[in-house]
Sequence to fold (257 residues):
Amino acid sequence: MYKIISNNLIKDNVYMLEVEAPLLAHSIKPGEFIIIMVDSMSERIPMAVYDINGDNIIIVYSVSGASTHELKNATSIHSLLGPLGNESSYTFNSELYIDKKVLLLVSGTGIAQVNRISKRLNELEIKNDIYSVDYSIFDDIKMIEKDNLRDLIKEYDSILTVGSFEFMENVVNISKDLNKEVRVSLSPLMLDGIGLCGACRVLINGEIKFACTDGPEFDGTKVDFDSAKKRMELFKTEEGRRYLREVEGNTFTGGRA
Fold:
């Protein structure tokens, strides 16, 4: 069991959770994620780590279903699995961005995925800014309206965007038009977080990848957003999941199960 230090409402339906987890706190890299299980029978919830406080990890999450409602009322955490996924390209390949200006563009709770990336870039003295579109859960985060995205993106060399598929696709299209490097986090596709459920199977430049094990960060210009959005809709029903298993065969989980 993992001790909950605090679990507080910060704005609207968004909570900040601090959990004592020394091994994770000292090993997880920016861009990697964890899986939370509130108790032994709970669903697995993939989550980004918003920040580190000594031996504790801090998570920012929105209560949007039964699992996060359970998390909101938890007094302890049964299981924390991680680090999972891969470190962000911006910190892993930081030498490529020394003389560049990076835009971290988010919507909703996407700030959770980029906060530690931004902090690490600041340590490396790489110019970067976080902007939230239309709504921000923190008052000190810069805001931008959707209609002004093009003018903002023009000012940067590389863009990392996190949010809904419609939002990320729009940012990618604008960035491509402006000939800017653009990367996306495909965390919205994840369910089990270890590549067994098949939910996060995605086409990257026509090649099958899994957001949880090959990502979650990808070159946005190579993502097939149409197939990803369709997959999310199909995964909402058992009939849809059965259909995907039948038509995809062994590639449904990449041969993992």
In short: The first strand starts at residue 2 and ends at 11. Residues 85 and 214 are 7 Å apart (CA to CA).
